[in-house]
Amino acid sequence: MSKTAVVRPIIWALGFLILGVLAGAGTLPWGLGLLGVPLCSVLFWKYRYWPVFLFLLFFMLGAVRSVGRFDLAITEPVHRTMVGRVVDTGGLTAGGNQRVVFVGEHAMHGGQYRLMVYMRPHLPRLEMGQRVIVTGELLPLERAVNPGGYDAFLHLRSQKMDAVIWPTEIVTGDVYINFFVRMRLVRDRLAAVFDAVLPAQEAGIIRSMVLGDREDLDRDLVEIYRVAGIRHILSISGLHVTILTLAVNAVLGKFLQPRRAGLLTLGIMVLYCLMTGAAIATVRAVTMGGVLVFARVLYRDYDLITTISWACVALLIYEPLMLFNVGFQLSFSAVYGIAILSAPIERLLTLARMPAYGKFRNGLAVSMAATFSTYIIFAFHFYEIPLYSVFANVIIIPFAMVVLLLGVFTALTGLVWLPAAAIPAGVVYYILRLWEWVGRFFGALPLALVPTGGGNVPTALASAALLLAFAYVMSGFGEEIKRRLPLFLFSVAVLMACVYVQNFPPRPQTTSLYTHGEYTVARYRGSATITGTGRGGERELLRYLNRRNIRRACTLTLTEWPTPANAARLIPVMERIHELHIHAPQMHLPDALQRAADEWGVVVVFKE
Questions:
Q1: How far is CA 296 from CA 246, 262, 292, in A?
Q2: For residues 404 and 245, what is the distance between their CA atoms, to the nearest angstrom?
Q3: Which of 65, 38, 31, 66 is nearest to 53 (CA)?
């Protein structure tokens, strides 16, 4: 190994930056930064490369940048009137409320705020760039109060939001046409082409894939894709951007020199990123494309891991709280997984003498690498993993290039002559129908979603260590693999131990949930008991049970008699318990609750 330079120093810089962000966010102690001094000293002693001490600056940069992100201008509810403009429209919520990003100033006291505005269905629909006067109660961004609950602070603050508002009154004005509004108008015109040549369901899918417009996605279809583990195909991901970048660069390369073609391709992809809403995955992919272009301009070799790390560093410096965003984590974990694991997995398939062609084996290895690396994020945040996603992705991803390129061709052709756009749209339609069949097929198989529990940092770190150990073992040859194999087996044992402790705590644990039902869950080893009033909060209770991987609790004890309204909310909980204890004189249970108890074999016990 070279004694003059650290291999891939950007990875070390990224690690120090992440530690700094965690320290600034209060997740890790600031004193951890002092450990960087001896670590950098060891690196300097080993490589005689003095820039290693610059890694400490990345730690400080991450810490300083993240500290200010936790300071909110709105810390308690306050009624205000704001004057400003709509800078983005984000589609509809499940309740039909329009999500709008609004930047405005207080009409009397001044001060600029960036707000997430939820427009109720009876209020007028707003357009991007529109001037509005909003009146309502500004609500501070709330942290999750229960384990596994929705953390509005981290989710919205990473998008630079200052508060949330549900307007009670709104006055609309003119629409200011700037560059970003023009880009959105272009997107709307392209979306209209898809609506004209495809049925509503398929138009919603292709609009989401090509334009990032998820407003008209069929929710039942999204659930089918989620269970099968192919939901990522509905978003503009790195795969989509890579396909489009290669296609644009190939076309421009026919007419321009490679350097000019690359720079023009990058410019086009930046415009595409802005037009589609600049989602995290899109920004990451375009950033990686920019690094690739400049590497070619400077006649430097392209290294995928280095490129990913540069993109990650740039995004975290811009907005450190992206580190806590699930989309950010999924996006980068998938690409890092491909970069680190695809070659070892392909070597394993080769050693196993898998009877398959080289390209298919390579595609299977890439799919497995991306899937296994994202399993960690799925288990941590969603408490379940789509078991058959590897096989589903092997089927659908080869068609992704066809769908994307034909989708772009359909949109551009439709702007010129709409009837001609119906021809490529027909091919897109049948491929999308095939994808739906694939999703339904794998989603209907047993154990399509495997419950895992989640939210456990040691388990997540042990899972990542296991994947890295596998990559290290399979990067060797012959006897070297055998010598490294104990490290992999040790990693498996550590992961199993973490999972066991997570699901079977060695000491009793009691957790009180902040809900109207006043639920308390007591856990010890493999058993769990629930106590509460049953007056609300059952959704939060179920999410906590999923987080702890409690599939069936021993008892649910209600301290109050369940009213018919409360009984309706308790029905989903009945599936998760063996006995229902009610501290009240025996009476006739509400019919819906009694039917649920009979269906799931729940024993009802009355205790006066």
A1: 14, 8, 6
A2: 11
A3: 38
3-state secondary structure of 63: helix
Alpha carbon of residue 347 to chain centroid: 30
The count of other CB atoms within 10 Å of the CB of residue 174 is 9
**Secondary structure in 3-state letters for 172-183:** EEEECCCHHHHH
Alpha carbon of residue 330 to chain centroid: 5
Alpha-carbon radius of gyration of the chain? 27
Give the separation between CA 49 and CA 497, rounded to whole angstroms. Answer: 39
Q: Which positions ≥6 away from 394 have C-beta within 8 Å? A: 363, 364, 367
Tokens of 441: 């097929």
Q: How far apart are CA 137 and CA 79, in angstroms?
A: 4
| Angle (nearest 5°) at CA 315 between 313 and 319 | 115
C-beta of residue 168 within 8 angstroms of C-beta of residue 135: yes
Confidence of residue 148 (pLDDT cuts 50, 70, 90): confident
Backbone angles phi and psi of 523, in degrees to 5: -125, 140
- 152 residue type, one letter: A
Distance CA 265, CA 251 (A): 10
Does the structure show a pLDDT above 50 at 2?
no
If you write DSSP's letter for every residue of 170-219 in order, what string do you get?
EEEEEE---HHHHHHHHHHHHHHHHHHHS-HHHHHHHHHHHH---TT--H
Q: Band of the pLDDT at 33, cuts 50, 70, 90?
A: low
- Residue entry with tokens 């990003």: 101
| Sign, CA torsion 467/468/471/472 | negative
Percentage, residues of the chain above pLDDT 70: 91
pTM above 0.85, yes or no: yes
For CA atoms 387, 388, 390, 396, the dihedral sign is negative
Helix (H, G, I), strand (E, B) or coil at 386: strand
Q: Which amino acid is at 258?
A: P
How far apart CA 170 and CA 302 sit, in angstroms, is: 52
DSSP sequence for 103-170? EEEETTT--EEEEEEEE-TTSPPP-TTEEEEEEEEEEPPPPP-STT---HHHHHHTTT--EEEEEEEE
Q: Return the closest-CA partner of residue 8 out of 294, 290, 291, 305.
A: 305
* pLDDT for the residue 385: 92
Distance of CA 42 to the CA centre of its chain: 36
Beta bridge partners of 115: 102, 163
Q: Taking the mean position of all CA atoms in its chain, how far away is CA 289?
A: 21
Q: Is 499 helix (H, G, I), strand (E, B) or coil?
A: helix
Number of H helices, E strands in the chain: 20, 13
* Backbone φ and ψ of 382, nearest 5°: -115, -5
